[in-house]
Amino acid sequence: MQYFIQVVVDGVATGAIYGALALAIVLVNRATGLINFAQGAMAVMATFVAFALTRAGVPLIAAALAAFAFAFVLGALLERVVVRRFEGGDPDIAVVATIGLLVLLTGISAAFFGYEPHPFPSFFPLGTVNLFGVFLSFRSLGTIVILVVAMVALQVLFRSTKLGLAMRAVADNPRSSALSGLPVSRLLMIGWGLAAGLGALAGILVAPQLFISPGMLDFALVYALAAAILGGLDSPVGAVVAAAFIGVVENLAGAYIDVIGDDLKIAVPFAVMIVILIVRPQGLFGRKVVVRV
Amino acid sequence: MSLLELENVTASYGHAQALHGVSLSLPENGAIGILGANGAGKTTTLRAISGMLKTTGRILFEGKDIAGLGPDRVARLGIAHVPEGRGTLPQLSVRDNLLVGAYQRKDRKQIAADIDYCLDLFPNLRERIKSNAAALSGGEQQMLAVARAVMARPRVMLLDEASLGLAPSTARRVYEAVVRLRREAQLSMVVVEQNAVLAFSVVDHATVLETGKVALAGDKAELMGMDAVRRAYLGG
Fold it and tell me: What is the ipTM of this complex?
């Protein structure tokens, strides 16, 4: 039983990382209707900024804040300069453009830091804490806490602030939003910036465990996409719950089903996802779009 | 001085020119109609005013040329456009739609009072305040679209085919509210309509467009007296 709980908590922590990326994907999707395949590569680039700063002796917390700011600007800039040209057009073309960005940004990271993985400092000590007889790692708990806080903050932003209302309006109908005087262009940049910042957070939290390299988040991105689709592309809470679910299923399958083991465990969440989507095409938490005329 | 004045305005969709030099004038506290058949350029004229299209010619609002400004800038100057097809925010609640309308305002108390005013104007919306706009009937969506424009406290409202696709009784209710708005909120209006009877319930002066040009202009009595206008827009 103890082992089971540990596996589940570690799974939730891994899932929380996917969740942060999934939230970024949902944010971008809600703001612009696109799926950004470069979300992971942008996050890695920001994490490299933190990496370079810590190597230069800057404390981790300051480096992380700088990485967040870098990511925000990078996201806003990419939206304005590159993605803007594809918004409102054929989504297939936009997707190819974001895949192009993925390759480009990964290449830029590699040009500066090479492809070999580097160790990255963690906010949390390595030890474990004994909670009711179960040993849980500080890292897993810390990751979960930080991402839950980020999720709540995002929910508050969207539900209870004027900026959040404006972002939801622009995501829903940019043309009409402009007719109400909303600065659509600026709001889209803010949406991309926030999403990129969230990605940076995920990158910094997962880097100590994976070691930082340009392709560090490639797998995580695939899971995050799965989580976003499973949770319903328009539901932040759904994305996070689905991400946690994917992390747990992946970990449990790897730990308990011998045939599966570490190599095949990555496929398990996808098998589950396909089954769920056959039953509920709009995702677990997604809303069925009903249009009345 | 006119509140809003178009001087020889042209506009195109890509390479297809849709307006060929349209001029009109909206006086302070006035209401004018734009009538015409499908494709005459009525909607295009409103889009040109709102900066949704590339235009030439002058568009003067309160004496300043606003041609070339983007739709959000034009809206912030005090021109609220209720677009063709209603343009509500489908995934947002009725209340959020209204709050988006008031986005540029800071007077929170007055905003709350104005929401109440809108719900009084359109009692149907009061019951649906928490529903998503997508769940409303066509008539309710049109009411919401008008209310969202009112929430901006504009000087001018551009109303595009508010009766389109609505049952006659529903269309009449929408226009009754518009008449009330014109009286109570001192709103100047440019009303685009295919149904001249509805348009003339609000406006007293109208311009008839034909293939992107002004074909006729005159007040209600003049236009209603013309056989051509009656045949085209009044059904005989």
Answer: 0.92
